[in-house]
Amino acid sequence: MQDLADFHAPVSDLFSQPKSASDWEQYRLSNEQLEFFEENGYIAGIKLLDENQIEALKSALDEVMDPKHPLHGLFHEFHSNESGDPNKVLFHSLGHWRIHQAFHDVIWNPAFRMVASQLLGDRPVRFWHDQLFCKPAHHGGNVAWHQDYSYWTRTIEMQHLTCWCGLDDANEENGCLQYVPGSHRWGLLEKPALAGEMDGLMEMMTEEQKADFKPVAIPLKAGYGAFHHPLLVHGSFANYSDRSRKAFVLNVFADGTLSDSDEPLLEGVPAIKKGSKLEGKFFPLIFDPAEV
């Protein structure tokens, strides 16, 4: 078994790759969708997976969640329950793209790559890191209100993007994603504990921000995704339903992003000197619009 980060191309046939410029057109966002993202800080309801791909990724999830997996040591982070409360379970991990070919290849999903490049200003895209967020039925924990970039200030400039994709149907009942439209214009706030209390971020907001704090639920069918700005405030409530809520996240940045730390950017990844470009084994270039 091998670290799949060594491979900067698909290693299976799970995702068919476009062979011509016209093949890519089906994945492009419309001008109206791009304008919605600019105004609100997110776009949702983007189909990313078919039924076979969903099942392949759910099977892969069952495998990598096992702490006895032979490649378990390749995770950057692995939390069977990040909340620490047995009544509020939140499975959260980083690094599973290195371990299972389905999670490796979903990074090269053309439907994801095209949209990511468009939302980053039609720029080349590099992979940052992946995440899994799983809330079991009846006692799945919350993800506190937060901005992604508040955890990523070890990289500059802020030219990042997040894609959330469900492997189960998600709605308010089982703790779907929630966004605060327009909050990407609030500037950078302090970072709360990710699996902490929902109102932790509220203490860091101005009175004007609190007045504009109007979350909207983002229900999504399995296989559909949402993309959001790195400063958009978002979170999700606990799952008390009888259905699980499994999802994966792909985080990317525009090519040319630099390290802003002499410390390792991810656990198990060699340090990249402050001021140096993020590239190489762990930060592959996944899309270049000039090549389409």
How would the blueprint of this fold be written?
Layout: H1 21-24, H2 31-40, E1 42-47, H3 51-64, E2 77-79, E3 91-94, H4 101-105, H5 110-119, E4 125-135, E5 143-146, E6 155-156, E7 160-166, E8 177-179, H6 207-211, E9 216-217, E10 224-228, E11 234-236, E12 245-254, E13 258-259, E14 285-287
Antiparallel strand pairs: 1-10, 2-3, 3-4, 4-12, 4-14, 5-11, 6-13, 7-10, 7-12, 8-9, 8-11
What do these coordinates show?
- The chain has one domain (46-63, 74-291): Jelly Rolls (Sandwich), CATH 2.60.120.620.
- Helices cover 16% and strands 22% of the residues.
- It has helices at 21-24, 31-40, 51-64, 101-105, 110-119, 207-211, and strands spanning 42-47, 77-79, 91-94, 125-135, 143-146, 155-156, 160-166, 177-179, 216-217, 224-228, 234-236, 245-254, 258-259, 285-287.
- 43% of the residues are buried.
- The model has no long low-confidence stretch (mean pLDDT 95).
- InterPro entries: Phytyl_CoA_dOase-like.
- Pfam families: PhyH.
- Keywords: Dioxygenase, Oxidoreductase.
- Its cofactor is Fe(2+).
